[in-house]
Amino acid sequence: xxxxxxxxxxxxxxxxxxxxxxxxxxxxxxxxxxxxxxxxxxxxxxxxxxxxxxxxxxxxxxxxxxxxxxxxxxxxxxxxxxxxxxxxxxxxxxxxxxxxxxxxxxxxxxxxxxxxxxxxxxxxxxxxxxxxxxxxxxxxxxxxxxxxxxxxxxxxxxxxxxxxxxxxxxxxxxxxxxxxxxxxxxxxxxxxxxxxxxxxxxxxxxxxxxxxxxxxxxxxxxxxxxxxxxxxxxxxxxxxxxxxxxxxxxxxxxxxxxxxxxxxxxxxxxxxxxxxxxxxxxxxxxxxxxxxxxxxxxxxxxxxxxxxxxxxxxxxxxxxxxxxxxxxxxxxxxxxxxxxxxxxxxxxxxxxxxxxxxxxxxxxxxxxxxxxxxxxxxxxxxxxxxxxxxxxxxxxxxxxxxxxxxxxxxxxxxxxxxxxxxxxxxxxxxxxxxxxxxxxxxxxxxxxxxxxxxxxxxxxxxxxxxxxxxxxxxxxxxxxxxxxxxxxxxxxxxxxxxxxxxxxxxxxxxxxxxxxxxxxxxxxxxxxxxxxxxxxxxxxxxxxxxxxxxxxxxxxxxxxxxxxxxxxxxxxxxxxxxxxxxxxxxxxxxxxxxxxxxxxxxxxxxxxxxxxxxxxxxxxxxxxxxxxxxxxxxxxxxxxxxxxxx
Length: 646
Known about the structure:
23% of the residues lie in helices and 28% in strands. Strands 3-2-1-4-9-6-10 form a seven-stranded mixed sheet, with helices on both faces.
């Protein structure tokens, strides 16, 4: 029989399993067919779409409206802003902010929605939009911005962008000019100037606040002109207003958009934005076919990628992205998440739901899984992981599963349910010592480190003979938040730290570690000694010869094939009197014969049942044909599930 283990959450909500409604705003400049292609990939009848086209691009606007009418002639949830509500949104100008605010206002008038997401015409989704709507369910009222690490920018102006930060910038006819120098930056004690990435996910209440100027504090309104004429206002205007508002506590600093490495020059090695503004600027490179491998490696934790060329919608890289969104993500997981595991989890969810509904379990005949989603957690569980999470480090990503299922009872009635499965991550984060996070995996890949980036599973593959280690070190207090420091008392002993560390010289004594893998009977499977160095050779490129306060180090240990079972990995510093032992519990499963081990995975908390809910639908009499149709649907959609007879 299946035993259910409940782990309390911070605050259960009846809406946490109800997908959100979205308003998606697209800022387009040209190439209407590429915009339609983007729309086709993210369109759902219950979401809302607002499109801004540059004010002078009348031909683009007209052609886009015609294409939309031909594609979805009856749609009332797509709005192309007319010329009177459009702006010349050139790079680095305040007009981008004006267009975004116009998008907020238009979306608010279209209907009820939970989140507003701003995109450019050169974005493409890399996950199904339904996955994003589901992932956001537990975070209604929050917003997500990729906050820049050097914010607030006016706390220490000497460390900032020099002349660029201290000039007035004004846009005219698509070009942004440097027009005057300001004497002093606004004092931080009066207003903190924050910076973030341009792309974000905003709650409806935040959108209402941003478009209600009289509700802003007087000191924020006082600095309106400065915010509008500062350097690259689309990266500071909204962030500054929100960080100086009650929404400050609702911001989750995290980037959910994949961007290629930024470039400052074009293919001719000339200033990238020389035709748009009085300084070179920089921006993400254009994604091409070879870049998709890197895009897919971030697929578990990001939803959109930018920028793609838009002149050729039928190009191979755009078609591959389109195919991946339609079929690729779920298909790519079929070899690591066995169908039998999902069957088992569906039954576990169904039994919990029936128990909640006070329905006799003895009446249950069949459970058929109809939908399966792998979703990233949009906020870290461990407060000590917050800094790495906000920097979008892949090694601290966490996941949940959403499963939908039909269940059939003895009187022939079919009902529908939905539930979540939580996964224990193969990493941990710490409040003391230089070691901030520690992750391991036996899932091997072909990237430069030989390991697959943080797969959305709660187990390792039995029979693996190699363990890959990722250690993240940070010496600065900025990586430790208040809630993380509350956990300091849990770490007693000598932590993993580099002795005689000199960040300015990038030197330290070698760090010697002992790594041990043992089973539940305390029998050692292997024990190894590891030597790590903090040096110019291991830290990589330095930025402006600044002190190095963080470093990621990787190593691998080869061992005999690891049999199925539960193991504990220990790691501690050598040569200290009372070493603190960093531990991770690991579950190794045989994917071709997983059934005998699933119950222990639940009992040991490697996976656990979360919330469940009944999905309202008319009762349908249960026939064998119903089951065949359900299986056919599952196979067609590649949701891996089948009915499990009890």
